[in-house]
Amino acid sequence: MLYSSKKGIEDVSFQVKEGEVFGYLGPNGAGKTTTIRCMLGFMKAVTGEVIINGLNSWSDAAKIQSSVGYIPGEMALFDEMTGIEFLNFQLQMRHVKDKSRLNELLVRFDLDPKGKIRKMSKGMKQKVGLIAAFMHDPQIYILDEPSSGLDPLMQQVFVDLIKEERKRGKTILMSSHSFEEVDKTCDRIAMIRDGKIVLVEDIEVVKQHRRKILTVTVDNALEISKMKKLGISVVFENDHYAEVEVLGDFKPFFELLKQIDVLDLDVKTQRLEDIFMKFYGKEGDAK
Predict the structure, then answer these.
(1) What is the 3-state secondary structure (H, E, C) of the chain?
(2) Which domain holds residue 258?
(3) pLDDT reading at 2 higher than 50
(4) For 223-229, what is the mean pLDDT?
(5) What pLDDT is recorded for position 284?
(6) What span, in angstroms and rounded, lies between the C-alpha atoms of 123 and 251?
(7) Is the pLDDT of residue 16 over 70?
(8) In this structure, is residue 220 part of a structural domain?
(9) In a domain, 198, yes or no
(10) Which of 14, 52, 54, 272 is the most exposed place for a label (fewest CB within 10 A)?
């Protein structure tokens, strides 16, 4: 599936198992949203097909769209409606009369839905979209950047909800550009880069190969020299600051660090691109 700009997705193939949470990772513009649009029948692939629960994503698009829980990467709601009007409208469209799940989600996400959607913040609109996706209790969820715009507290609420749905046997595909988000929720992941799948793997295998970078603040450069002599992998340094790389278990590292006069210690968030580079060269080819 290529656009006129020659960008898009090509030879994308993966399977999401029933009852698993599957993370779909890639930098912005890698092809995640295009893949999801093909899955839901919003776009037709030039070749190949998508099958969801036995249904073809193009010829059975209406059935799929009515049955799955979907949240788009860019939220487009009816601005002149209030939040509750929009949610009730969605329930009517799905012929759902029981509002107990809706009410439960409103409380969980701490959302007052009475205001006009056009006056809502991005975070509030995201909550409306999440509630709309989950309130009819589907068996399958397709979520495109679902925590976008949520504050850290609501991000954790969302993570807890995903974990609960997994325990209930739901099947979830969740796209993200954040490894930390899928790390907390997913069983397996696929990585897409420049429109092509470069990895499909169990999350635990990926985590074992993932570099952990910690920032260590010390009183003087002599402490950094001591770290090097102890065999600690220092990847960047100045007089009072060092970035160190840890692979695998933290325990041996912390035992060595007891011999260093540490003023401060912090974990540096690893960019998704850094994770790609651990598995692949600059051109995205497997090492």
Answers:
(1) CECCCCCECCCCCCCCCCCCEEEEECCCCCCHHHHHHHHCCCCCCCCCCCEECCEECCCCHHHHHHHCEEECCCCCCCCCCEHHHHHHHHHHHCCCCCCHHHHHHHHHCCCCCCCEHHHCCHHHHHHHHHHHHHCCCCCEEEEECCCCCCCHHHHHHHHHHHHHHHHCCCEEEEEECCHHHHHHHCCEEEEEECCEEEEEEEHHHHHHHCCEEEEEEECCHHHHHHHHHCCCEEEEECCCEEEEEECCCCHHHHHHHCCCCEEEEEEECCCHHHHHHHHECCCCCEC
(2) 211-269
(3) no
(4) 93
(5) 43
(6) 38
(7) yes
(8) yes
(9) yes
(10) 54
Tokens 């570099």 correspond to 211
Give the Cα separation of 172 and 53 in Å (integer): 12
**pLDDT tens readout for residues 25-40:** 888 888 999 999 999 9
Q: Do residues 242 and 248 lie in contact, with contact meaning Cβ atoms separated by under 8 Å?
A: no
| Within-domain flag for 5 | no
CATH of the domain at 39: 3.40.50.300
Rounded mean pLDDT, 250-257: 89
pLDDT of 8 reads 76
State the pTM of this model: 0.79
The verdict on 29 and 160 lying in the same domain is yes
Distance separating alpha carbons of residues 285 and 174, to the nearest angstrom: 24
Q: Read off the CATH number of the domain in which 227 is found.
A: 3.30.70
The two tokens of residue 241 are 């600051």
